[in-house]
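Continuing the batch. This is chain 6 of the set; chains 1 through 5 are on the previous pages. Same settings as before, nothing changed between runs. Recording input and output for traceability.
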Amino acid sequence: MNRDTRGRIFAAMTTPLKIDFVSDVSCPWCVIGLRSLEQALERIGDGATADIHLQPFELNPQMAPEGQDIVEHLAQKYGSTREQLTRNQDAIRARGEALGFTFDMAKRSRVYNTFDAHRLLHWAELGGRQLPLKRALFAAYFTEGRDPSDRETLIDIAAQVGLDPAQARDVLESGRYADDVRERERFYGERGIQAVPSVIINDKYLIQGGQPVEAFEQALRQIVAEPAEPAQR
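Output for chain 6:
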């Protein structure tokens, strides 16, 4: 509740925000982007209610089941040298630490296929556990160095956030939601999303990259402050 200039109590208006967060499990800047977004929303408080949907994006859809050494992978994909990789890792580690997240680069030595992780996230959304699962997948890969393509690992992570491990196993072994994930990937690809994280608010505003908390907060406050569009007759 708030008070106006004459001391009268009135209910503050709350703006609903539909947020589509397009990202990959193996993207460190997606970790930074999600944590920055969530902290920005905390700063806004009761001024907005966020309905966050985690949308799939595969950085390496053709990655072999055994994965690839990260130094070799980044050299092939981006032409990065070991020195450049070290500088980038140092920057990512520092950003993560500022946001309360631990990037243990010594444990993250390989890059993996993430399609099964996205199928599990799609299923988790139906049970209202998508965000906790995403956070747990980030921690498993970037902090603990676990393999997000390994199904037993995925089942264990699902159980940690309160999802039924038997149902998680059934989802993974049956191939369920594969078409749904591919359709979502096509949808965003056809709309020009080629890099992650990409944050789409109310199907209208796009914020890209692992932005600082302050950048997300400023953008969200501007959106919240905009006058509502008149109802269609």
